[in-house]
Design goal:
single chain, 15 helices, alpha/beta, 491 residues, 16% strand
Length: 491
C-alpha cells in the first residue's frame, strides 16, 4: 500500500509557513492520494485552523522545523499532512501523515507546475460544467486517473479571489445572450418534433444532422466547434442575401441547368456514342422514355416555381442554426434536384439485371442443363447422351430469346454504365458534404489552437522523472521507517 502526494513544484522549495488546500481521495486499490493545489498564509489557532478555503479542503501546513508537535497536536489542528523546512536543506520534508492505509510501504511525492496542469487538454468522455471548456470526448480510460482529478481541481478559482460586484448583471446578460443564441435551434427542435413534420423529414439529411448536432451540444465536448459553426452560418447567410438579388431564381436556374445537361447527355447517347453500335429501336425507346421523364420533371418545377422562390428564404435562414445545417440542407436539395437521374439509374439497373438473369437461365437451357428443385442447383450434363431432352419448340423459343437478349444487352449496358456513373458522382458529392459536415463538429479545433500557441499539453505526452535529493527522504510512521520518493511531472 502506498500514498501519493501531488505537490506544486514551488511549494517543495518553500521557506515560508503556509497552509495547504486540496482534496484527499482513496482509490479502490486502497491508495491514498493527496492533491495539493492551493495555499494561504499560515494562521493557526489553539485547536484547529480558522482559515478554510471556500471550495477546497484544508489538508495541512508547511512549518518551520522549530515547530515540534506530536500526533495529538496535529489532530487538534485538523491536519492530514505536515511538512517542515530548515535553512540548511533546499527542500521541505514530510513529517506527518494523518490519513494512511493500514500497511503503508511507500510514499511518493509528485511535483508539478501549476500552469502546466491548467494547460492540459484531457480527453475524458464528455464532461460536466467544470470540465466542459477543457475536456474532450473519447478518453474513456481516464475516469480513475489521478491526473484527471488534479486537472479538475486546478481549474477551480482561487479562494481569495473575490467576484466582481457586477457579476449578477454579467450573469443575467450572459443568460440573455445564450437564450437569444439558442432560440433558432429551439424553434427548429419544436418544429422537427411535431408528429406530422417528423414523419416527413425523419429520413432527410437535415434531420439526421440535427440529431448529431444536438448530441454534440448535450455532451458539451466541442464548444469551439459549435461556436465556429454558428458564426460561419451567419456569415454565409449574410453573403447569400447580399449577393443574390433574386434569391428565388438561384435554385430554379440550377434545376434548369441540370435538366439541360441531362438533355445533352441523352443527345450524346443518340446514334452511336463513342463509336458503339447500339440497337436503334431500344435506343429510341430509352430516349423517348427518359425525355418524357425529364419533361415531366421540368413541368413540375415550373408548377412549384412560386413556392421555391419563397423556400430559398428559409434556406438562407438556416444560417442561424449553423453552417453545417446549410450543408445538410444543400445535400437534401442535391438529392431532390437529381431525383430523375436516380430514377434513370433504377430503370436501367432493373432492366440490366433482368437481362442478365434471363441470359443465365437461357444459357442453361441451350446447354441442355435442367434445374433440380430438390438440390436447388442446375444438374450439369457433360455427356451429350445424358442431356435433358427439351422439346424442339422449347429449344427454338429459348434460342430466339437468348439471341434477342444477347443483342439487346450492349445497349442496356451502355445506359446502365452511364447512369451508374452519374449516380456514383452524386453519391461522391453527397459523401464529400457529409464528410465536411461531420468534421466540422469533430475536429479538435481547441486543441489545434493550443498547439499553435504552444500552450497545449496532452496527458499522454507527460513524463514522470526522478528528483535527486541531497539526503534520502523518509518518514517515521507508527515506529516504522517509510521511504519517500520524489518525482516531477514534465512535458
Amino acid at each position: 500500500m502506498s500514498i501519493k502526494i501531488y505537490l506544486p513544484f514551488n511549494y517543495f522549495y518553500q521557506k515560508k509557513p503556509i497552509n495547504l488546500y486540496g482534496q484527499v481521495i482513496i482509490t479502490e486499490d486502497n491508495v491514498v492520494v493527496y492533491h495539493i493545489v492551493e495555499s494561504t498564509d499560515l494562521q493557526l489557532s489553539g485547536r484547529a485552523t480558522d482559515h478554510l478555503s471556500s471550495n477546497l479542503r484544508f489538508l495541512g501546513s508547511i512549518l518551520n522545523d522549530d515547530f515540534n508537535a506530536d500526533q495529538n497536536q496535529y489532530l487538534q489542528l485538523d491536519m492530514r499532512l505536515c511538512f517542515t523546512y530548515v535553512s540548511s536543506q533546499p527542500n521541505i520534508s514530510l513529517v506527518y501523515i494523518g490519513i494512511a492505509p493500514d500497511y503503508l510501504k511507500h510514499i511518493k511525492i509528485i511535483l508539478y507546475e501549476q500552469q502546466t496542469i491548467r494547460n492540459w487538454f484531457v480527453d475524458c468522455g464528455g464532461g460536466g460544467e467544470e470540465s466542459s471548456n477543457k475536456l474532450d470526448v473519447g478518453y474513456n480510460d481516464c475516469k480513475d486517473c489521478d491526473f484527471l482529478e488534479l486537472f479538475k481541481l486546478a481549474q477551480r478559482p482561487a479562494a481569495g479571489v473575490q467576484k466582481p460586484k457586477n457579476s449578477t448583471k454579467r450573469s443575467a446578460l450572459r443568460a440573455l445572450t445564450v437564450m437569444v443564441a439558442n432560440s433558432p435551434i429551439a424553434i427548429f427542435r419544436y418544429i422537427a418534433e411535431n408528429v406530422l413534420v417528423n414523419s416527413i423529414i425523419v429520413h432527410t439529411t437535415i434531420y439526421k444532422h440535427f440529431k448529431e448536432w444536438q448530441s454534440t451540444c448535450d455532451r458539451r465536448s466541442r464548444p469551439i466547434n459549435i461556436t465556429l459553426d454558428r458564426i460561419m452560418g451567419l456569415i454565409s447567410m449574410i453573403i447569400l442575401f447580399s449577393l443574390a438579388t433574386q434569391p428565388g431564381d438561384f435554385l430554379i436556374q440550377i434545376s434548369h441547368v441540370v435538366i439541360d445537361q441531362l438533355y445533352s447527355l441523352l443527345k450524346v447517347l443518340e446514334g452511336s456514342p463513342i463509336g458503339l453500335k447500339l440497337n436503334i429501336h431500344l435506343n429510341n425507346f430509352f430516349l423517348d422514355c427518359f425525355k418524357y421523364h425529364i419533361e415531366l420533371w421540368s413541368t413540375f418545377l415550373d408548377f412549384i416555381e412560386p413556392l421555391v422562390r419563397q423556400v430559398f428564404l428559409a434556406i438562407g435562414g438556416f444560417g442561424c442554426l449553423g453552417f453545417t445545417f446549410q450543408i445538410a440542407l444543400l445535400a437534401d436539395l442535391i438529392s431532390i434536384i437529381g431525383i430523375h437521374s436516380h430514377c434513370f439509374y433504377i430503370y436501367t439497373r432493373v432492366l440490366f439485371n433482368v437481362e442478365k438473369k434471363g441470359l443465365s437461365v437461357l444459357w442453361q437451357v441451350v446447354r441442355g442443363n435442367r434445374y433440380n428443385i430438390l438440390k436447388g442447383m442446375y444438374t450439369l450434363s457433360r455427356i451429350p447422351q445424358k442431356a435433358h431432352n427439351y422439346m424442339n419448340r422449347q429449344l427454338y423459343l429459348a434460342t430466339i430469346f437468348f439471341s434477342t437478349i444477347l443483342f439487346l444487352l450492349p445497349t442496356t449496358l451502355v445506359y446502365y454504365i452511364v447512369f451508374a456513373a452519374l449516380k456514383a458522382l452524386t453519391i461522391a458529392t453527397l459523401s464529400i458534404f457529409e464528410f465536411f459536415r461531420r468534421k466540422m463538429l469533430s475536429l479538435p479545433i481547441e486543441g489545434s489552437i493550443k498547439w499553435l500557441i504552444k500552450g497545449y499539453n496532452e496527458i499522454d505526452s507527460l513524463q514522470i522523472v526522478d528528483v535527486v535529493l541531497e539526503e534520502t527522504a523518509f518518514l517515521m510512521h507508527k515506529n516504522h521507517r517509510i521511504d519517500v520518493s520524489v518525482y516531477k511531472i514534465e512535458t
